[in-house]
Request: fold
Amino acid sequence: MFRKLGLCDARSCGPFRYNGPNFPLKLLRALSHSLRLEKAFGDTMKTEISTAANFVTSLLRTAGLLTEEQLQHFSLSLEGALLGHYQHHWFPQAPCRGSGYRCLRINHKMDPLIGTAACAIGLSREQLFALLPRELTLWVDPYEVSYRIGEDGSTCVLYESSVSQPRTASSTDKGPSCKGALRTGQSSPSKQFKMMTASG
Reply:
């Protein structure tokens, strides 16, 4: 259905835009690109990125308007975009560092990484807005992936590592997560810890 609607401009979609019979070839190229990035960065962020891409893909799947082939291509394109985007912004020793940069956000504007992956299967941003929640925040951090639908919605955890997170001098107490600090208007858990110590 969406294939017949206004497809994205090929210049904005890059080389992986949906184009009918050549689509399986494009899917293989996207997979190859994703595998090259994965090989370069190992498993350091693969689980978190796969979780985020699968979640957004599942939201698109619920509409029932896209084929499994399109959904698979979208997921691979989003994974590749996230791997490339996060490559210098992934800090397992300080998981909250760079959290805002890694956050995927739809808030009356489409997140550019999600938009690029959608364009790869021929969806325009307007069509994508019709299929996804109007307000979605998806945090992709080392050891945790969580989301919130709506500004006042609850934060739900999609993935949380069972591996203990590394401790640093500023994280001796677990304190709130990156998302908790954002919701209370504080820039980092370590500042809250210092304020508690100063008032204590």
About this structure: The beta strands are 104-107, 135-141, 144-149, 156-160. Residues 57 and 72 are 8 Å apart (CA to CA). The first strand starts at residue 104 and ends at 107. The first helix runs from residue 10 to 13.
